[in-house]
Specification:
Strand order of the largest sheet: 1-10-9-8-7-4-3-2
Order of helices and strands: EHEHEHHEEEHEHEHEHEHEEHHHHHHH
Number of strands: 12
Structural class: alpha/beta
Largest sheet: 8 strands, parallel
Number of helices: 16
Strand content: 5-15%
Helix content: 40-55%
Radius of gyration: 21 Å
Shape: globular
């Protein structure tokens, strides 16, 4: 298996998955997906979560619908287990066997360092500092118990997940689980907040310590954090991947990323379909467009064209997934541009200042400067210099809205 230098990995969610098994929502003979052979747009890199979607994904796979030469990442479902109070739904062995059978790269079942109740459900995302090392050791054990299940005939890579909120905690966790390093082909890291500055600290840890094996950045989500990952890729020699589900605002909220305003969206939804969350989701973003082909040249918009009004009015089942595919295309284009300007500081700052609000642009630039300073004077100096920007609360790490840029 060969990975690119850096790979954007969309997360497959319910709506975009269900489309693969429905024949009544084809558009001009094309399916409103990006990962199937009959997709309207084809992109053969994605992540699946077996906790929620093991059965439907296997069904799609067994029907021969998945694009050839796909590289499929599989989460462990550990987050969902504690979020829903079903921590023991799947054992580490069961998850590993499923990942090895159906995907190319799997993440270990990690024991999240957050306090849980008697059911194993999270208690308000309260960080469990007292038992942090115990959670890391449990994760190491979860990795170790899968050794006996390794099938050498399969080209399957297994990644260890590193938890923590800051550099020293990442290092403590890593030093515990790396005892299983010979069983691991890569590592996952995750920023504790949506702040680009915290993401920069996570990247600095990866640059300094994860120097040989591929690195995956978990739940990168928004454009700001992925930009920091791209910048860090200048200093990481091995392959990098990062997953995001933000594109799927199309399926969930009919939210369409504007191709000429990278960090802005409009919504295609009738007012009578706004639902209970209308105040939260921004009814002011609803725009009546008569022809999508006039504002975007992607295959989705060119195909929908003047049918957009009728689809919105009818709340067409295919519409959400089509918008999500447009969003994937938009993300790929933006990511490609960012990758091309990493060594042109003037154009990179221009991109940031033009596309982000002032407060977020400031944090992005701070994150970039922090990485540069760490490369010049060491991580301790850089993290101390920016310590006031790296404040963490006792409650941290929760999953934010997909539209929090």
């Amino acid at each position: 298996m060969k990975l690119d230098k850096i790979t954007f990995v969309p997360v497959l969610n319910g709506g975009i998955l269900n489309c693969a098994l429905r024949s009544d929502i084809m558009v001009d003979g094309m399916r409103p997906t990006f990962y199937t052979k009959d997709a309207i747009f084809k992109y053969n890199r994605f992540l699946i979560n077996p906790f929620h979607h093991s059965s439907i994904y296997v069904d799609i796979k067994n029907r021969g619908l998945i694009l050839d030469d796909s590289i499929v990442w599989a989460d462990s479902g550990g987050l969902q287990g504690v979020t829903l109070g079903q921590k023991d739904k799947f054992s580490p062995e069961t998850v590993f066997k499923w990942q090895q059978e159906h995907t190319n790269i799997g993440f270990c079942v990690d024991d999240l360092p957050f306090k849980t109740d008697s059911r194993g459900a999270l208690v308000g995302w309260e960080f469990d500092k007292e038992h942090f090392a115990e959670h890391a050791e449990k994760t190491r054990q979860n990795i170790a118990c899968t050794r006996k299940l390794r099938d050498p005939s399969k080209d399957f890579w297994f990644y260890g997940i590193i938890q923590g909120r800051k550099y020293d905690e990442y290092l403590e966790w890593y030093n515990i689980i790396k005892k299983e390093d010979d069983h691991l082909q890569g590592y996952c890291v995750k920023s504790p907040t949506n702040s680009p500055v915290n993401m920069a600290e996570t990247c600095i840890f990866a640059i300094n310590n994860l120097t040989e094996k591929p690195i995956h950045f978990l739940g990168t989500g928004n454009l700001g954090r992925s930009l920091i990952v791209y910048y860090a890729s200048k200093f990481i020699k091995q392959p990098i991947s990062f997953d995001s589900s933000s594109y799927d605002g199309g399926t969930q909220y009919r939210s369409y990323f504007l191709p000429f305003m990278f960090n802005k969206k409009i919504r295609f939804v009738s007012e009578h379909n706004l639902g209970e969350d209308s105040d939260v989701l921004g009814p002011e973003d609803i725009v009546d467009i008569d022809d999508l082909s006039q504002i975007c040249d992607c295959v989705v918009c060119q195909t929908i064209s003047s049918r957009i009004r009728a689809m919105v009015k009818a709340n067409a089942p295919a519409l959400g997934s089509l918008i999500s595919v447009h969003n994937v295309i938009n993300n790929i284009r933006v990511n490609h541009y960012i990758e091309q300007i990493l060594n042109n500081k003037h154009k990179l700052l221009e991109f940031i200042n033009f596309n982000f609000e002032e407060s977020m642009a400031r944090k992005l630039i701070l994150g970039i400067d922090m990485i540069d300073l760490a490369m010049e004077k060491g991580h301790e100096y850089a993290l101390n210099y920016y310590k006031d920007e790296l404040k963490l609360n006792a409650v941290a790490g929760s999953q934010k809205t997909i539209f929090q840029f």
